[in-house]
Each structure stands twice: as structure tokens, then as C-alpha cells.
Amino acid sequence: MMHMNRRSALQLLSGAASFSIAARAGRLWAQPRKLKPDAASVLIVVDVQNCFIAGGTLAVPRGEDVVPVINRVAPAFQNVVLTQDWHPAGHASFASSYPGRKPFETIKLAYGEQVLWPDHCVQGTSDAALDKDLNIPQAELIVRKGFRRQIDSYSAFQEADRKTPTGLGGYLRERRMRRVFVTGLATDFCVAWTALDARRAGFDTYVIEDACRGIDLNGSLAAAWKKMAERGVRRIQSTDIELG
Ligand code: VGL
Ligand code: ZN
């Protein structure tokens, strides 16, 4: 009590040190650091349109569930881009364009395999409109894709011929964006192709899993996640984003 010998002073010091390490480790364990969207981060909201939601022409199972999640994370982003699948009648991806063919079959087109879909997201129809509950007033750009009759486009960056750019890559580069967060519909088609192309274009790319829903055609959902993991797309949850 009167005097502290050397040994107990050392014990006190090392005790304090190990306590602070334990406290820090405890914090890391309990609450991993969240991702904070910055001025160089952009949220891409893929195809949250009536056609992909209950009652639409190509409804994704539980597609409507993405809307509240996207509405919750969107205010954390200074930059938001929306996409719209936007096909002319008689589009090359519509089964109805080929006598005798049915939706969800595949066909060989000039640029390769194409899944045939029910007629969906026809330009100017209410089916192609954005879901009315999507609430992102600050969204700065809407990219429409799949508007060429002979070429589909799952990706918001590059059409299915893999050589026709939509212009989104140029827009994001010119705006000095570095990180892309992808949400929307459908996980295994337009979300995955958009994320893979974002990564290919050199952006740090994240897919917010609970802000997406998939179609899952013949194992396409697992295949999409596998490919995205292989290419360095990061799979996160909306709770990993720092809000406010
Ligand atoms: C999509 C199929 C056909 C999508 C668009 O948004 O994922 N899927 N067109
Ligand atoms: Zn489409």
C-alpha cells in the first residue's frame, strides 16, 4: 500500500494492457466495423419494377420484399442510380417472338444462349414502371436497358452481345465513383450481371444480399453467387452498412 514494488507495478501495467486489448477484441467481436458509403460510393437499384413484383409479368418470388430494405439503406448514399428493364414489343428475349417456343426455354441467338422470358417490361407500360413504394427521391440517373429489339441486357453496364456499352461505366468513372453497391431484382440475372460488370470495370463491388431476390432457374442462384465470389464481388447484408 505504502509503496508499489516493481513487480506489482509491472503487473498493473500488463493487466491494463491486456484489458484494453480484450476490450478492443470484444468490441470487434460484438460489432464488426460497418461500411460507410462515401462521396465515391454509388447505390445501384436494379429493376425494381412492377413486372418483377407480385402481379407483374415476370414476378420474382418475394420480389416486393426488397423495397423496404432498399428504402432503408438508400438515405446513406449520396449517389443512387436506378435501372429499368425496358423492352420493345417483340423483343428477342420474349418467347412469344418465336413460334412454338415457351418461356424459360433457351435459344441460340447471334450473341449466344438466351433464356426466353414471358413478355415483360414493355416500354411505356405500367408493368415497366418503377414500384410505387420505392422511395429514393435523390436518385440521380435512371439507366434503361434491353431497349434494342435484337439484344437483351441483364447488365446495367454492357448488353448481352458483350460489346454494346450502356454508358453507365463512363458515367460512373466521370463522376469519380470507386465503390458500387448493387441491390434489386433479380439476384441471379440483372443484379449478378451488373455486379460482375462493375467488378470487371474496376469498381469495388458489393451485393447487398437481403436487398435482392432471385428467380433461381435450374440452379442459377447458387451459380451466380459462386461466380460473383470467384470474381471478387463482396456479398454483404444491409446491416453491414452504416446508416445515418
Ligand atoms: C431480368 C430476366 C429478364 C432481371 C430482366 O431484371 O433480372 N431477368 N429480364
Ligand atoms: Zn428483361
List its salient traits.
244 residues, alpha/beta, Rossmann fold, 2 domains, six-stranded parallel β-sheet, two-stranded antiparallel sheet, binds pyrazine-2-carboxylic acid, binds zinc ion
Chain-averaged pLDDT: 91
| Major sheet: arrangement of strands | 5-2-1-6-7-8
* Fraction of helical residues: 25-40%
Rg, Cα atoms, Å: 23 Å
Number of strands: 8
Distance between the termini: 50 Å
Poorly predicted runs are 6-22
In CATH, the topology of the largest domain is named Rossmann fold
Structure description:
With 244 residues, the protein is α/β, with parallel strands linked by helices. It folds into two domains: 1-30; 31-88 and 127-240, 3-Layer(aba) Sandwich (Rossmann fold). Helix content is 27%, strand content 19%. The chain is built from five helices and eight strands, in the order αβαββββαβαβαβ. The chain has helices at residues 6-30, 66-73, 168-174, 187-200, 220-230; strands at residues 41-46, 79-85, 106-109, 112-115, 141-145, 179-185, 204-213, 234-236. The strands form two sheets. Strands 5-2-1-6-7-8 form a six-stranded parallel sheet. The chain has a two-stranded antiparallel ribbon with strand order 3-4. Strand 6 (179-185), helix 4 and strand 7 (204-213) form a beta-alpha-beta unit. Helix 4 (187-200) packs parallel to helix 5 (220-230). The longest helix is centred in the N-terminal third of the chain and has 25 residues, at 6-30. It starts with 5 loop residues before the first helix and ends in an 8-residue tail after the last strand. The model is unreliable at 6-22 (pLDDT under 50). Bound molecules: pyrazine-2-carboxylic acid and zinc ion.
